[in-house]
Every structure is written in C-alpha cells, then in structure tokens.
Specification:
Immunoglobulin-like, disordered N terminus, 5-stranded mixed beta sheet, 40% helix, alpha+beta, 27 helices
Length: 889
C-alpha cells in the first residue's frame, strides 16, 4: 500500500468514523461547534425585505438583493464569561450590544461564526443581546432566497427560506445548532401585495410606507433554528380546512392552488393518524403546506409551515401521473411525521440526523400502506432498502450514526444511509419488538422528550422498556454505530422428518476484500414456502444458531417476508429448492431472493448464471417491484456492455423478457387497471426503448408526433415513457421540441418530464447543449441542476462524454448551486462512468478536496467507477457464455 493511498484512506476513514459511544441526552455533553456557556431563550427578529438596492453578484452575474435585520436575543448565561459566540454567514454585523452596552468583535470566521466580548463580564443569568445587520437575498435555494417564475399573468417572485442544515445563519445571527432550542417572534416588512407565511399565524399587520406592509407573527414554541420559516410572495388565496382542530392551508403559485386539493385530502388522513400514533396531538394552531417552484430538496418540515418543491405538493388530475400521486402522498406523510419526530423531539447533533429522517421515512411508508393498501407500499419499500444496501456494502460505507465534527459537513449525511437504511432498520426493529409494543414505546418517548433533544440511547431505552426488556439497544446499535450489512448463511438438513436449519453470520461486502470483520445481533425470520406454520424469528450473533421446522418437503426461506436488513446465502440444495418453487413464493420473497442472488454475484460469492437462471422464471410475473429490481440488474449489465461484442445478444435476451410484459399491458391505459399497471407499463416502454426495441421506438416517435400537434392525444400516463424514449434517440429536431416544451411548462412535474427526457440524448453535440442548459438556462430550476446532469450521465449511454463536457465547466455550473450541491455535482456525473481515468480526475479535482464532506462524496464515486471497471472484466465473459447457451430458450 503506497503512502499516498494510506493518506487518502485515512481521510476517508475520518469522515466515516462511527459516532461516539452514545449516552442519553444531556445538554452539557452534547457535541457542537459553539460554546455552551451561553444559550438562547427567545429571539425577536425584525426584517425589512424591501431592498434599497440590487446588485450583480460577482460569482454568477445573477441579481442579489439586500435586506436589513435586527435580532433581539434573550440569552441565559450558564457560566460567567466575557465573550459569546454565535453563527453568522454572509451577514454584515453593523452593531452588537449586550444589556445596552456595545460589544467588541474578537474573531470572525465569515463562513461560520463570530465571537464578541461584552463591555463587562456577564454573570450567570438572563441577558439581552441586540444585533443590527444587513444580509443578502440570492437566487440560490439556500438561506433566504428568491424564486422568479412564470404565470399566464406574467412573471412573479417568491421569497423563501431553506435553513436545514446550517443556513439559518444566513438570515439571522443565531445559535444555529439543533440543541439550542428557543422561541421565535418574527416580524417582516414586505411589498404590499405579498402573502406572508411563517411558523405561526399572523398576530397583526399594518402599513409600513408606500407600497409596503409590516407583518407580525405570533411567537413560536421552543424549536431549533433550522425549523424557522418565512415565505412571502404572490399567492392565490389558500385552500383551507380544519383537520383535527388544526387550521391546515395549502399555498401555491398563482393560478395553481386547486392543484393542492389532493395534498389537503392527504393531510385529512395522516394528521389524525399521527395524533393517535404518537399519543401527543399536533401542538401548533396551524399547519401550512407551501409549493415552491425552485427548491433544493423535495420538501422541508419547518414547524407549522412545510415547504415543498411544487411537483411534490401539486397534483393536476388532468396531467399528473399515478407515480406523482403516490410521491405526493408519501412526501406529505414524511414531512407531517417530522412535526413530531424532528420538530417536537429533535436530535441533539447532526450525527443523529437519522433519528429525524430514518424514522420519518419508515413512518411515511407505514401510514401510506395502511391508507392505500392497493399501492403495496411496504412491498415496494424493497427498492429503497436496496439503494441503501448498494452503498452499505462498499469500503466507503459510513455508519448511520456518523461523527460530524464540523456542522458544515452535515449536508453529506442527507443520503441513502440516513433515509433508506434508517427506515429499513426501524421497520426491522418494529417487527422484532412487536407493532403494539413499538407504538407504546414511541408514545412514551415523545411525551418524555417533547420540546427537547434526544440521542438514539433515549429511543432504544423507551423501546426496550415497552418491549418487555428485549435487547433492543444491543440489536439496534450493532446496525447504527458501524457500517455494513450482515450476511446470513443458511444450510438445511433433514433429520427424523424435520428440517434442521442452521444460520451463520458473516459480513457482506462488495469490492472490499480487507473489510473489517463485524458481528451484528440480527433478528432472522425463517419460514417454509407453502407451510401454514408461522415463521420463526431468532437472534443470530457470533455463533451458529439452529432451529427445527416441521417437515422436510417445503423449501426454507430466510428473511421471510423481506423485513430484515441483511443478505442471505443458501446452500446449493436450498437455493435449488427455492428456485423450483419460485412461483409459489410471496412477492416480497421473490424480489428478496432475486436481489440477494444478484448481490452475491457482484460480491463474487456466486456465478452470474445463478442470477440469470432465476430471470428465466419470470414468465407471467405481475409485480412492479420484481420487475423494477430485475431491470436494475439488467441495466447494470447493459451499461457494462458498452462497446463490448456481446451487447447485442444480451439486449436481445433482455428484450425477450420484457416484451411479454408490454404485450400483456398494452400501450393504452385501461379504466379498470390497478395503480401499479401504469407504472409497470412506463417502465417496460422506457426500458425496451433503451434496449433498442424498434417497434417501441417507432411507436413512441409516432405518438410524440401526434402529441406535438395536439397534446390531448397522449394519455397522461404515457407522457413520461414516450418523451423518454424520444429523448434517448433524439435528433436535433426532437431535442429542441423537448426543450421548448420544458421551458414553456408552468408546473415542475411537466417541466422536469421534458428536461429529464432531453437529458437522455446521447449525440455528442446534443450533450454539449445539455450541459449548456445546466450552466445557463434559467428555466431549469437551480435546485434540479445536479439531478439534470446526473440524468444526462446515467441515461445518455455516453457518460464519459458528459464528464468531458462538464468537468472543464464545473465552476461555472457550481456558481448556480447551493453549497451542498456543489460538493455532489462532479461525483454524481462521474459515478455513471466505468473509466479509471475519470476516477483519477475526480479524486484530484480541486472541488473534491475542498472539505471532508466533499472528499467523502468523491471517494464514493471513485469506488463505484473502479469497481465497474474491475467487474466488467470478470463478469461479461461469463454473461456472454450464459447468453449464448440460453439464446434459444
């Protein structure tokens, strides 16, 4: 191992270190970047949002507006001190005083914080800090920003805040860490025609000069700074409904508020559910849902004023797809769950972000599955678990509880491990503890820690007590404090007419031969296919565990029901027995068997033939989740086949699998088909079009031509697949039509449909145009630039060309992006490649070395690229042999 590689490995290790050994929450011992000798109690914030000036930013040429602010902070001094430190970024601090006496600047890190010295030593007790300042309103979707958007009545503007994780400090000097909870009383001067929204209802408003008004909001309950919200713009009157005693409103850009009707209906179902589940009623008098045309995230759970990117809130019955309907339901459920998990009870520091996000991810699926059982939400939750496992098997995997030393690195924790592994872990623990017992534990946890902070130790203690003292903490911490996935080996023998099943544990890794050995406490559920006897759950730890099952005829299936977060490898006889009964497996067990089989191939624990043989059993397979999983593997092989001699034969086999699916469903949606059918049809059309099915390509182009003449001719469920196939095979004319449709669209669902479709164009000249759009086109929302370029890299079938065009223009593109998106731009583009030279460029690019979080993002992408380059050489010859021997089957 070279010294250079040792250095790179140490840096990666530092960013992926597990969190410190957890103890129950205690303010004094909570990690943070600010001193804890002074803490805020109440903020009085006064803003003037009508700028006296507008200037061009030197960074990107976009207009930047000024605002004025004054914040009066009641603080509690816990230990006598001369100095106090708070967060402030891009704010000009014009005056700072304590108890009426001017304070003196001691030190300032303009990217993070400032320290001041009081005129005299501050004794323990209450004091008052007053800060006058000015700040910036930029077009980047972070901090306090503005969005310009179009309506049929002309251009409009909205002012928006987005503070999570560390951007409240861009709008007000504050103790901008989650442990510092305080109340917030906000007032703002704004244009007379603007509609104001914040966490709490308006207390009063009045004129503030020509064309201006002043809004004063009621004080908030105690909360963290990142949950503060202010939105002001030209909205229609909101939709309103009283739900469970709460005034719920939906706000949307002008002319679109009726598209919020579905979201309001969702709230009518989920808000009462959460009131009951948590045993604590929603504590604020109102809850607003606000659609924003440009937003860096999908949504933000600000207490009492949730902000959403508009295609995650607005549903147009005439144009929106079933997938949009389901996405809106889940996102609304997710953000509503946060009103308790995250807002009422908040993680103490960012290493426990998963307490917010993993729990809300689990809860959104739980409530969606209960209210909409035909959507098969828990069955399809397999997709998100697989996303997490794909990352968690690598050498760059990091723990759920990842130690974050600098809060500016917190943004990189918003990933598949936090959301998807966190949600999958919660589901497994609920199954282990018992549904009723788990709910009782959550109710006790919420009541005990309301308006305060927690660590995972507090949650495990509550669940352990409610479970009857099962070893919940021991099970859970083995999954949260270290990275990785358990592998459960299953061997079965027949002894005196009974099946004896032996379970052994190993660590499942991909491309990580020197990974540290780990032992988990794994609740493994084992059942027999077709046997009415209930499945058994046992804890597998450091020693093999054997269980007896009645009878030897029925195949044995581990991870029965697919609730567990672990991989399974069967002995030869056990795998054959399951394969022989594949059609009798429940859908959850079919997709689990397929997923584990493919993962074992990638980990070099199984031959490609073991997985490809299973794909021959898919005739008549009805389930969307199974096909999505299989298509993911087929796409991975097809991508590795770029430029290889065997690609045509492999594509012919893959088309043969999928053509019967489309033939069964037909092109045209039917009035009586279920909610999965349109999504499976979409998937089949897009995949067949990508695989070169000439009939599908011709039909998509034909329907697109009719659409251009009359959009009503193309069913709303066919717009995405038709546009995607057309974009993938686009010439200049088709590309420009897609771009024109994207730029003219008012709603984000339609806008992104066409932008993402044209991003798939593989012609080098069109890729050049795609990158120009990302760099310059103001109609493409800034919050979606990195996803747009990621689509170009993954969908164009020419990822190396996308990299070659993006890399020299990266800084120009980054000028449009938020701080977090800047770190992810190059890794997201590069990771679609399998070319080692691109991995080298990424690793040593200046943006990849700017911060620990940036290095971590780059390291993950480098590992992906190098793994694909390696596995291509090992996998493809074996795939080609299998395809040749099965070409007539």
């Amino acid at each position: 191992m070279s010294r250079l590689w040792i250095l790179v490995s140490l840096l990666a290790l530092l960013i992926a270190m597990p969190a410190r050994a957890e103890a129950p929450f205690k303010y004094e011992s909570t990690f943070g970047n600010l001193p804890k000798n002074v803490r805020p109690v109440a903020y009085q914030i006064d803003l003037d949002l009508v700028p006296d000036s507008a200037r061009l930013s030197s960074a990107d040429g976009a207009q930047t507006l000024d605002f004025k602010g004054r914040v009066d902070i009641a603080v509690e001094v816990l230990e006598a001190t001369e100095t106090f430190t708070f967060n402030a970024v891009d704010l000009d601090l014009e005056s700072v005083s304590v108890d009426g006496a001017n304070a003196t600047l001691v030190a300032q890190d303009k990217e993070k914080m400032a320290t001041y010295r009081a005129a005299q030593k501050l004794a323990p007790g209450r004091h008052n800090i007053v800060i006058g300042y000015t700040g910036k309103i930029t077009p980047k979707p972070e901090g306090l920003y503005y969005v310009n958007y179009g309506t049929p009545q002309g251009p409009r503007r909205i002012l928006v805040t987005q503070f999570e994780a560390v951007d409240a400090r861009r709008m007000l000097p504050s103790w901008d860490e989650p442990v510092f909870k305080a109340t917030f009383a906000l007032s703002a001067v704004m244009p007379e025609g603007f509609v104001p929204i914040s966490n709490m209802p308006i207390a009063h408003e009045g004129p503030a000069g020509a064309g201006k008004k002043k809004i004063v909001f009621k004080p908030s309950p105690k909360m963290s700074t990142y949950l503060l919200v202010l939105v002001a713009g030209q909205f229609d009157l909101p939709l309103r409904q009283t739900i469970a005693g709460v005034d719920v409103g939906v706000f949307a850009p002008e002319g679109r508020v009726q598209q919020g009707r579905f979201a309001l209906d969702v709230m009518a179902k989920v808000l009462p559910y959460f009131n009951d589940y948590f045993g604590v009623k929603y504590p604020l008098p109102k809850l607003d849902l606000i659609a924003i045309p440009d937003f860096a995230a999908g949504a933000m759970e600000n207490w009492g004023g949730i902000t959403y990117v508009d295609n995650r809130l607005l549903f147009d019955p005439a144009a929106s797809s079933q997938r949009t309907r389901e996405d809106i339901f889940e996102v609304v459920a997710h953000e509503t769950a946060h009103q308790w998990s995250g807002n009422l009870v908040t993680m103490a520091w960012w290493d426990n972000l998963w307490l917010n996000e993993g729990f809300a991810t689990w809860m959104q699926k739980k409530v969606t599955d209960q209210i909409n059982p035909t959507w098969k939400t828990w069955l399809r939750a397999h997709e998100s678990k697989e996303r997490a496992m794909a990352k968690d098997a690598r050498s760059t995997a990091r723990p759920i509880q990842r130690q974050i030393l600098d809060d500016r690195d917190a943004g990189s924790a918003f990933d598949n491990i936090t959301y998807d592994k966190g949600g999958a872990l919660i589901r497994m623990i609920e199954a282990y503890v018992g549904e009723v017992q788990f709910r009782n534990g959550m109710r006790a946890y919420m009541k005990a820690h309301a308006y305060s902070s927690t660590t995972t130790a507090d949650l495990w203690a509550a669940l352990g007590k409610a479970s009857g003292n099962k070893p919940v903490a021991a099970v859970a911490t083995s999954f949260t404090e270290y990275p990785g996935i358990p592998l459960i080996g299953v061997t079965t023998s027949c002894v005196k007419g009974n099946a004896v099943v032996t379970l052994r544990q190993d660590r499942f890794v991909i491309n990580s031969p020197y990974a540290e050995k780990r032992i988990w406490q794994v609740p493994v559920t084992v059942g027999q296919v077709g046997n009415a006897a209930p499945a058994q759950t046992v804890l597998v730890h450091d020693k093999p565990v054997s269980i007896n099952l009645a009878g030897c005829a029925a195949p044995v299936k581990a991870n029965f029901g697919n609730v567990g977060y672990y991989r399974v490898q069967y002995d030869t006889a056990g795998l054959k027995a399951l394969s022989d009964k594949f059609g009798q497996l429940a859908a959850a067990d079919r997709v689990n068997l397929l997923s584990d089989s493919w993962a074992l191939v990638l980990a070099e624990r199984a031959e490609p033939a073991t997985y490809l043989d299973l794909t021959k059993l898919l005739a008549g397979e009805p389930e969307l989740v199974v096909w999505k999983n299989v298509i993911e593997a087929l796409r991975a092989i097809d991508n590795l086949q770029r430029g290889a001699a065997g690609r045509d034969a492999f594509r012919a086999y893959a088309r043969g699998l999928l053509q019967p699916v489309l033939n069964r469903l037909g092109w045209d949606p039917k009035a009586d088909e279920g909610p999965e059918a349109p999504q499976l049809r979409t998937l089949a059309i897009m995949t067949l079009g990508r695989l070169g099915d000439t009939g599908v390509i011709a039909e998509a182009k034909r329907r697109f031509a009719f659409f251009l003449k009359d959009p009503a001719t193309l069913h709303k469920e066919l717009r995405e697949p038709v546009a995607t196939v057309v974009g993938y095979h686009a010439d200049r004319t088709a590309y420009e039509e897609l771009r024109r449709r994207a730029s003219q669209a008012l709603g984000l669902e339609e806008k992104l449909l066409f932008y993402y479709a044209l991003a798939g164009a593989g012609d080098p000249a069109l890729i050049d145009e795609t990158v120009k759009i990302a760099r310059d086109d103001e109609k493409l929302p800034k919050g979606r630039v990195i996803m747009f370029l990621s689509k170009a890299a993954t969908e164009s079938d020419n990822p190396d060309r996308v990299w070659e065009v993006v890399f020299p223009q990266a800084q120009d593109i980054m000028n449009r992006l938020t701080s977090g998106h800047k770190e992810r731009l190059l890794p997201l583009v590069a990771t679609a490649s399998a070319t080692p030279s691109i991995a080298f460029q990424l690793k040593w690019a200046k943006p990849s070395r700017s911060r620990p979080s940036a290095r971590y993002e780059a390291d993950k992408a480098v590992e992906d690229i190098e793994f694909k380059a390696d596995i291509r050489e090992r996998l493809l010859p074996k795939v080609d042999v299998w395809i040749k021997s099965n070409s007539g089957s």
